[in-house]
Every structure is written in structure tokens, then in C-alpha cells.
């Protein structure tokens, strides 16, 4: 009798009958990725990550710390998923620096100020209500210095999971942007074709 996944427990006929049917669609792996803006798309092309399939094959090299705002401690480097409440910019007196962008961001555990350097266009790109994945350093007085950022469809606070994947990146595209895109297309992993022949999987009673 077949057994449950990663278990020696037998599966009765009713459980087998009620199991969901999965129909992979490998063609989805050929769909192009919608990288924005153009500079990020060019960097993704250089990295060889332009389709869903290439993204699935671009594996993380490490994991970082995922946190909620309430879990952050001073000087900690971490990744958070938050929602923008408000966002403004102000000039910087230091010569050569572009206006500083400051956003009030929040999750279910708290609110903090996120600071973006030399990227004044983000005030228009990230209006209130935008969900962001932010990687950076938590500082004193409830401030977060952002090193990398990307829009995300993840639930606010979702970065508190066991770890945050760190992807190989290149100039013009960050690990955070790659992670956000991978999270957006994570269901595509079910469209992969099992490389083992069905006859072998059945004979060896391997899980699908």
C-alpha cells in the first residue's frame, strides 16, 4: 500500500481518492519576467534571469535574517516586509548628495522610519499603501537605513519566517529584488516536470 509523503504511514483509498490532482504546465517557465525599471531589466539580462524558468534555476546562495518591526534590535541587519504609510523627501546639505527620502512604514508589530539615500524618485515610486521588502540596518530612535528594496506581493510581516533567501546578484539588481520576484512566481515551481520517469517513480514508490 502507498505511504504518505516522508512517512511510513499507509494511505487508505479514501485519502488517495481525495488527493488534489496537479497538472504541471512547463510552458509557464518560458514566460518573460516583468523587471522594472529598464536598468534593472538590463541587469537581469546580464545575470541571465529573464524568464520564470531561469528565475527558478537561479538558486539562493545563503539565508539572512527575516524580522518583523517589533523584533528588530539596534544595529541588526535584517529584512522586513512592510507597508508604506507616508513618504517624503528633503534636501541634504552635503555636496553631491541627492535629496533624502524618508518613509513611515509599518507591519502588525510596529511602525518605523525607513531612510533611502540618493534615490529621490522613490517618493513617486512608492506611494502610501505600497508593500515593500526592505533589507538594511536597524538604528537607534526607531530608524531603518535601507540598503536594498523592492515591491512585493507578500503579506506584511512575512519576512519573519525562518530565513530570507540571499541570491547571487550583480550591479543594477539586488538580492532583494530577485527574492521579491521569486516570491511572486513561487507557484511556478509546481510546473516543473519531474526528471524521473513515471514507471520508476511508481516502481520505487517515490512521492510525486
What's the CATH H-level homologous superfamily of the largest domain? Nucleic acid-binding proteins
> Class of the largest domain in CATH?
Mainly Beta
Order of helices and strands: HHHEEEEHEEEHH
Can you count the helices?
6
Biggest pleated sheet: 5 strands, mixed, barrel
Mean pLDDT: 88
Helix amount: 10-25%
The CA-CA distance between the termini, in Å, is 16 Å
Query: How many domain regions?
Result: 2
Description of the structure:
This protein is an alpha+beta fold. It folds into two domains: 25-61 and 167-208, no CATH class; 62-164, Beta Barrel (OB fold (Dihydrolipoamide Acetyltransferase, E2P)), CATH 2.40.50.140. The chain has six helices and seven strands. It has helices spanning 13-18, 38-47, 52-57, 122-125, 175-184, 198-203, and strands at residues 62-64, 77-90, 100-107, 110-116, 131-139, 143-151, 164-166. The strands form two sheets. The protein has a five-stranded mixed barrel with strand order 2-3-4-6-5. A two-stranded antiparallel ribbon has the order 1-7. A hairpin with a 2-residue loop joins strand 3 and strand 4. The two termini are 16 Å apart.
